[in-house]
Specification:
The protein is of the alpha/beta class. The chain folds into two domains: 122 residues, Response regulator (Rossmann fold), CATH 3.40.50.2300; 58 residues, Winged helix-like DNA-binding domain superfamily/Winged helix DNA-binding domain (Arc Repressor Mutant, subunit A), CATH 1.10.10. The protein is 56% helix and 12% strand. It has a five-stranded parallel beta sheet with strand order 2-1-3-4-5, with helices on both faces. The mean pLDDT is 88.
């Protein structure tokens, strides 16, 4: 059973919307349906949605136009396209732009569930990564300006002696700062500390 998650269905055909809602809800997902891309984009539900299943050809904004708008308004959302018309160039464009899958109607229910599962896993990983980065950023903000400077030099690969020479302090003081940094950032090794600097994009050119 798939974990209960919110999926948005966008299709101008009511029968398709109702059918997909039934399929997804039967699999433990919560599905919300919209008759157009515009209505979804105007909805306040965007942030709670894990992925979008959208028709490619719709009145008003088509699927590719919707995908471009998503990159601007809700860039975190993965999209699964469905279409009743084989369109190889459009499918190639959609996949290159990051679509999870491109399903031609009629498709098997399992094909849809598999595609949605991939999209949900992308969203789950994104949320997990964002939480890790947010926590790391909060810890980084507890550092003093001097500790932040030392950390940037550690990220640049400098040894304690080199850092001391670079910023004009004693080597023992650098060691003390590094100890404080490790404690505040909750790391036990230099490798862990370097991983955090990479996540937070803390870089300084090695002198």
């Amino acid at each position: 059973m798939i974990e209960r998650t919110v999926v948005a269905i966008i299709d101008d055909e009511e029968s398709v919307r109702k059918s997909l809602v039934r399929v997804l809800q039967a699999s433990g997902l919560h599905a919300i349906a919209f008759p157009s891309a515009e209505e979804f984009l105007d909805s306040p539900d965007g942030p709670i949605v894990s992925c979008v299943v959208s028709d490619l050809l719709m009145p008003g904004m088509d699927g590719l136009g919707f995908q471009r708008m998503l990159r601007t308004k809700l860039p975190h959302l993965s999209i699964v396209f469905i279409t009743g018309h084989a369109d190889i160039p459009a499918s190639v464009m959609a996949m290159k732009a990051g679509a999870v899958d491109f399903l031609s109607k009629p498709f098997r229910q399992q094909e849809m569930l598999d595609a949605v599962t991939v999209a949900i896993e992308r969203d789950r990983k994104r949320r997990k990564d964002e939480k890790i980065i947010s926590n790391a950023q909060a810890l980084f903000e507890t550092l003093t300006p001097r500790e932040s400077e030392v950390l940037s030099l550690v990220a640049a690969g400098l040894m304690n002696k080199q850092i001391a020479a670079e910023i004009g302090i004693a080597e023992i003081t650098v060691k003390i700062h590094r100890g404080h940094i490790m404690r505040k950032m909750g790391t036990r090794s230099l490798a862990d500390l370097v991983k955090i600097t990479e996540m937070l994009r803390i870089h300084r050119t090695k002198p």
